[in-house]
Amino acid sequence: PDWTQIKKSKTKPNGKKPPAEEKKQYLEPEFTKVRVVDFDLKELVVLPREIDLNEWLASNSEISKTGISMFSLSLSRIYYWYDEKGKKTKCTAPQYVDFVMSLCQKLVTDEEIFPTKYGKEFPNSFESLVKKICRYLFHVLAHLYWAHFKETVALDLQGHLNTLYAHFIVFVREFNLVDAKETCIMDDLSEILCTPAPPPAPVPAPSAPTSSPSPSSQNHVTER
C-alpha cells in the first residue's frame, strides 16, 4: 500500500535480488513474552450486554489513539498521506504520524461524531470513521515495530508496546474494523501476541515424608 515502504518486491528493477531481509527483532521470544498484563485481552474488548455498540467503539478508539500517540517517536521513513479531498502528499514518517494524530484528535473531539452529551445520537457514518481511525493507528503501530523497536527496547517499553498492540489487534478483529489485507504485513507478530498463553501447569503438592519405624518400635512386644 502507499502508506508504507515496508513491503518490498522480490526483485529490483535491474533484475537483481534485494539483500536478505533484516531479522525482525520484535519476533524474538525474549521480547514477545514481555507484557504488562497476564490475562486474555479478549475479555477487555467483548461488547458488554448493557453497553451500546457505538459507545463501546468510541471509548476503545479513544483509548487506542491515546496509547499509540504516546509511542510516536522520531520517525524517519517516507509515507503518502491522502487528505480529505483525496490529494496525495509525500511526507516523512514524523509528518505522517502528525497527520494521523491530528486527524484522530479532530474526529474524537467533534461532538457531532463522538457525542458526549446524553441523548445525542451517533452519525450514520460513525462506523466508517472508526474504521478509518483504526486503519491509520495500525499504520503507526506497524511503523514503530519495523523502524523503532530497538529504541523501544532501550527504553524498556517493549512490554507496554506489545500489550498495546495485542489489545488493539484483538479489538479491531472483534468488530472487523480493519481489513485483513491491511494488517497482514504484521500477521507474524499478531499470531504470537494475540494467541492466549496456555494456563500454567498446576504445581503438584509436596508429598508427606515417610519415616521408617525405629528399631526399638520394631522389637517392642506388648505383653498381655
UniProtKB/TrEMBL annotation:
Region of interest (Disordered), ranges: 1-24, 197-224
Domain of life of the native organism: Eukaryota
Bias-annotated ranges (Low complexity): 208-217
SMART domains per record: Mob1_phocein
KW 4Fe-4S (keyword) present: no
Keyword terms: Metal-binding, Zinc
InterPro entries tied to this protein: MOB_kinase_act_fam (IPR005301), MOB_kinase_act_sf (IPR036703)
Binding site for Zn(2+): 143, 148
Residue ranges with Pro residues bias: 197-207
Name used for this protein in its record: MOB kinase activator 2a
